[in-house]
Amino acid sequence: MKTVLALIDCRNFYVSVERVFNSTIRTRPVLVLSNNDGCVVALSEEAKQLGIRRGMPLFECQHLVDTHQVALFSSNYALYQDFSDRVMQTLSVFAPRQEIYSIDEAWLDLAHVEPAQLPAYGRTMQATVQRHTGLPVHVTIATTKTLSKIAHEILKQQPEYQGVLSIVTIPAEEIDTFLAQISVDDVWGIGAHFALALNAMGIYTARQLKDANMFVLKRRLNVTVQRTVLELRGVSCLPLAPHPKRKQHIASAKTFSRPVETLDDLSAAIATYAARAAEKLRSERSIAGSISVFITTNRFKKQDPQYSPSASRTLHLPTAFTPTLMRTALDALLSIYREGYQYKKAGVLLSDIRPQEHLQFDLFGAFSLSQHHTQARLMHAIDIINRLWGQDTIYFGAQGLARARTWQMRQERRSPRYTTRWNELFAVT
DNA sequence: CGGCGTTAG
DNA sequence: TATTCTAACGCCG
Where does residue A336 rank: exposed (0-12), middle (13-18), buried (19+ CB within 10 A)? Predict the structure, then answer.
């Protein structure tokens, strides 16, 4: 059975979501900023035209922002995730199997669709997402994931396709002409480093990569590059994965809005990140066997003394109970904290993660089933309240009072959470 | 197996 | 003055 995959990619996703609620920014350049309003994480076509790039620190393009009336938004993940859910739900009716690849992308298995009908089918999907969510999407259809990404690059270069392209039935020579138009560093899976190495071997385009000796590439680079070559030849090596795997690591880490020096502030931050990580852990129905903590000074301030320690702790019993994880994290923090440094970032990492059912009774009797159930019920209740009423409706004393967390990220330009908070609903007047 | 490097969105 | 965050995978020692 031949593989047929559709890639659905929301165009400039965060920007497009902001534009759904704000008609005045639909023709202006728009930027969505990272935490702390520091870097550009998403931008509209108009902003790209101005020369602004993804990842740029805001201060580097401030002059363009000022002179071209660029609209700025802090990132509003609650809103974007809600729109993502709506897009994925809309797409799910078009295929028996769907892989949600990222917040703005999905693959669908279209093996059931008559090949000649694929372009029309793609056009219908595009129109349906537009109607249900107001978001523009690209739809590309191919026999491998990598080729569907290639078709997506073609759509970016050639607007006359109007966002839909199927390359399932076109002859091999025509696919070659597409591949020849794409630079090797725009091939999915080839980043800056591998692109340089490939250039040094005389490989500059996707077509040259397809025709390269994959065994040499496996030896000189790694097996993922070999797979990419095969995928470009139409041999599917990266199957659709409809059921996301349980996470092996869960991290919560953030840059502070200002340098932090005191143990008190760092403790409140680490407690907050531990709570956030524990929440994610429970949402995966998992428990963690170890936790590590790191703190780091500002590496961009080369004249300042630098210090970036980390510490790990193994938990006697794997758990998803916030107080235990928090206590352990704070204990680890105490072991690495040194006075006299300006800390800029801190984080918590959970690992040795397993399904919550795998909790094994320990042989020495420290484990109490009734205590475990009490803890699980408490966490469940807190999670439900925070989900209904918003993050941090209930939080732990060790996190410090919300208003005292002056290190917490700046989000000065966040749009309302129109769809997930009752008091921020979109109002029609 | 842990640390490092690479990639992705 | 200012510089995101999270996760997976492969390789190597």
Answer: middle
Q: Is the CB of A251 under 7 A from strand C?
A: yes
CA of A212 to C1' of B1 (A): 34
pTM for the full model? 0.90
Which pLDDT score, from 0 to 100, does residue A365 have? 58
Nearest nt (C1') from A36 Cα: C4
- Residue in the structure block whose two tokens are 């690059």: A153
Question: How far is residue A85's CA from residue A91's CA, in Å, rounded to a whole number?
Answer: 10
How far the first Cα of chain A sits from its last, in Å, is 55
CA A87 – CA A134 distance, rounded (Å): 10
State which nucleotides on strand B lie below 7 Å from a protein beta carbon: 5-9
Whether nucleic acid strand C comes within 7 Å of the CB of A410, the answer is: no
What's the CA A220/C1' C13 distance, rounded, in angstroms? 18
Instruction: Find the mean pLDDT for residues A38-57.
Output: 89
Q: Nearest nucleotide, C1' to the C-alpha of A34?
A: C4
Average model confidence (pLDDT) for chain A? 90
**Tens digits of per-residue pLDDT, A156-212?**
999 999 999 999 999 999 999 999 999 999 999 999 999 999 999 999 999 999 999
DSSP A230-262: HHHTT---S----SPPPPS-EEEEEEEEEEE--
Model pLDDT for residues A381-397, shown as the tens digit of each residue = 999 998 888 777 888 98
- Report if CB A210 to strand B is under 7 Å: no
Distance A62 CA to C12 C1' (A): 43
